[in-house]
Amino acid sequence: MAGPIRRLLVLVDGTEESITATQYAILLAGSSAAELIAAYVINTRALNELLKTRIFVEAEEEEYEADLRSDADRYLKHVKDLADQKGVPLRTLTASGSVHQEVTKMVREHEIDLLVIGELAHARSRRDEFYNESERAMRSVGCSVLIVKDQERVWDMFEYGAEE
């Protein structure tokens, strides 16, 4: 009989918090035999807003988007290497668009049971809260969400094994 978590998705965005979430997701997938998918969403919605407000010209937007694609590849390679260290198979996905919309779509299309995200930054205003794409994704998905905290403890578990 399969457990309650057959497939989990970890959101990678290049922050230390997302790498901590990835380490935890790798350990969780390894101990539960769940399929692990890591996703990086290139936030082209934010790029389009920078273009509309004339902070970027179109050529700058294209160059910056290319840099973001390169970052996505680099971070997904890094998390693949982390999974390989623990012998946990990992599939990677890259998407472009609005982060919360793309994550919601991935959860639905890949029949995700658990979304794993890093600790959320503290919102200083309601406007910050509205624009926090990870939080919007967390609220939008149709599956359970695990927010990984305690970076030092997770790192120790990943490096040295579970606590006795």
Description:
- With 164 residues, the chain is of the alpha/beta class.
- It has one domain (7-160): HUPs (Rossmann fold), CATH 3.40.50.
- It has helices spanning 16-32, 44-52, 58-85, 99-109, 126-131, 133-140, 151-160; strands at 7-11, 35-43, 90-97, 114-118, 144-148.
- Helix 2 (44-52) runs antiparallel to helix 3 and helix 4 runs parallel beside helix 6 (133-140).
- The radius of gyration is 16 Å and the shape is globular.
- It starts with 6 loop residues before the first strand and ends with a helix.
Instruction: Please write the string of helix (H) and strand (E) elements.
Output: EHEHHEHEHHEH
The assembly state of the depicted protein chains is single chain
Q: Beta-strand level of the residues, as a percent range?
A: 15-25%
CATH hierarchy, class: Alpha Beta
Going by CATH, the architecture would be: 3-Layer(aba) Sandwich
By DSSP, the count of extended strands is 5
Class by helix and strand content?
Answer: alpha/beta
Strand order of the largest sheet: 3-2-1-4-5
